[in-house]
Amino acid sequence: MEERVEKVREFAGLTDEEAAILSSFSSLPMDTADRMIENVAGCMPLPIGIAVNFIINGRDVLVPMAIEEPSVVAAASNAAKLARRTGGFVAKAEPPIMIGQIQVIGIKEEEFGEKAAAVEAAKKELLAEANACDPVLVGIGGGARDLEIREVRTPGGRMMVIHLLVDVRDAMGANAVNTMCERLAPKIEAITGGRVVLRIISNLATKRLVTASVRYAKEDLGGEEVVDRIVAAYMLAAGDPYRAATHNKGIMNGIDAVVIATGNDWRAVEAGAHAYASLGGRYTSLTRWWKNDDGDLEGSIQLPLAVGIVGGATKTHPVARVCLKILGVKTAGELAEVIASVGLAQNFAALRALATEGIQRGHMELHARNVAIAAGASGELVEKVAARMVKERAIRIDVAKKILEEMKRHAE
Ligand code: NAD
Questions:
Q1: Distance between CA 305 and CA 288 in Å, rounded?
Q2: What confidence score (pLDDT) does residue 366 get?
Q3: Sheet holding 157-167, edge to edge
Q4: Which member of 68, 91, 306, 328 has the greatest number of CB atoms within 10 A?
Q5: In this predicted model, what pLDDT tens digit does every residue of 128-182 receive, in sequence order?
């Protein structure tokens, strides 16, 4: 582990203090934790693994991933290694526009058009009012950009919903947008004669999409037959929500791990991803895979990614700060581009394993150590018990307990 930390330190130019934060197993000071949330009584450490081999938009990137599940980091690194041969991942984030929703009730249906026109007419004034909330954001080129007026049918009748579009620059943006929405509410009530209820960001960040793509040469995958099998495996996710849920879960293995390592809000990212996957009226895959004219495999991912490099816990959590430095990203958009690429790599790794040898062999070999620990093994015995289970192709707690007892008996 020391060697790994040293390599990361050299690659990312970490200071001694930053390297110490990364490699410590208690890097969140109690008083920082106590200020982050309420009723703090402890913390929940997760391992951070460094995914290697990634080239993203021509740049070598080391990717810190915070995750409790074995084999995710290895799978991402393997997928990235194969992608290096064709130049790696190409990713593009749209401008960081978030949507805030202002819900207005009590407008008569026949007056809807007239009230919408009144809001439209006051747009300039409303945007100025929103921007007055956040001079910092406006000062760095962000701020409220536009208003969109929607009429939404709900089980409780038709409602006016005003979308406030805000360029949140390098923030995730929820606090910034919520503050603006709350500020506009009284003016909107005065203009429409309706009553404002909700004033809150939408996690379905369709104006902040990120796309990443990759190509795998057929000879690197073991021939065109493997390409066909991977495409067939993807097709099931495209057509069947039962498969799409698992397919997207695999994608989120990679995405969440980076989102968590960087102190970002993974519930927001999860909500956005799954809502986006359902936007066509039917839950489907976040990625697409196809065979190109040369018989090679090509894939792409598109999803909303509301992540920041400022705000939230990104700057307060010392480990998040170090992880952002390791990633070397200068903007929230660049971070989103890395995250989307990792999601695509993770999906490729899962599809490839599933479409060929199945995931259990690789996964269970890595999982064997956890099973050995759960059975009570410690120290050297963890590896020994795990290795025996792998050899016997029986990775189960009862088997681990039996092997452990046997080993202990022999040692006596
Ligand atoms: P924030 O309010 O902590 O930081 C954003 C602010 O930082 C901006 O408003 C701006 O004033 C300032 N800033 C300085 N430099 C900036 C730069 N380069 N780019 C952008 N802003 C800059 O954080 P936030 O991103 O507005 O909100 C994120 C937090 O909101 C997260 O902790 C999230 O969990 C939480 N949250 C989420 C939801 C949701 O997703 N539904 C709802 C409520 C709160």
A1: 18
A2: 77
A3: 143-154, 157-167, 97-105, 195-201
A4: 306
A5: 999 999 999 999 999 999 999 999 999 999 999 999 999 999 999 999 999 999 9
Nearest residue to 216 via CA among 292, 301, 296, 300: 296
Q: Which residues in the chain come in under a pLDDT of 50?
A: none
> Does the beta carbon of 137 lie inside 6 Å of ligand 1?
yes
* Beta-ladder partners of 100: 164, 201
Q: CA–CA separation, 187 vs 199, rounded Å?
A: 13
Residues known to be catalytic: 69, 249, 265, 363
Q: What is the pLDDT of residue 316?
A: 92
Q: Whose CA is nearest to atom 3 of ligand 1?
A: 311
User: How confident is the model over 384-401, as pLDDT tens digits?
Assistant: 999 999 889 899 999 999
Residues with Cβ within 8 Å of residue 105, at least 6 apart in sequence = 159, 160, 194, 195, 197
CB of 204 closer than 6 A to ligand 1?
A: no
Does any ligand 1 atom lie closer than 6 A to the CB of residue 212?
A: no
Of the candidates 142, 125, 145, 134, the one whose C-alpha atom is nearest the C-alpha of residue 188 is 125
Ligand 1 centre from 316 Cα, in Å? 12
The pLDDT value given to residue 393:
87
**Cα–Cα distance measured from residue 365 to residue 371, given in angstroms and rounded to the nearest whole number:** 10
Burial 93-121 (b: 16+ CB within 10 A, else e): bbebbbbbbbbbbebeeeebeebbebbee
Going by C-beta distance under 8 Å and a sequence separation of 6 or more, which residues neighbour residue 192? Answer: 104, 107, 115, 118, 119, 160
297 phi and psi angles, rounded to 5 deg: -95, 130
CB 36 near ligand 1, within 6 Å:
no
Three-state SS at 134:
coil
pTM for this entry: 0.91
pLDDT of residue 387: 92
Q: Could you tell me if residue 41 is left (phi over 0), alpha (psi between -120 and 50 degrees) or otherwise beta?
A: alpha
pLDDT at 367: 86
Question: How many angstroms does the Cα of residue 38 sit away from the middle of ligand 1?
Answer: 19
95 CA → ligand 1 middle, Å: 16
Report helix, strand and coil shares of the chain as percent, to nearest 5.
Answer: 50, 20, 25
Q: Closest Cα to atom 4, ligand 1: which residue?
A: 311
Provide the pLDDT for residue 356.
Answer: 87
If one residue of 310, 314, 315, 334 were mutated to test the ligand 1 pocket, choosing by the most ligand atoms within 8 A of its CB, it would be: 310
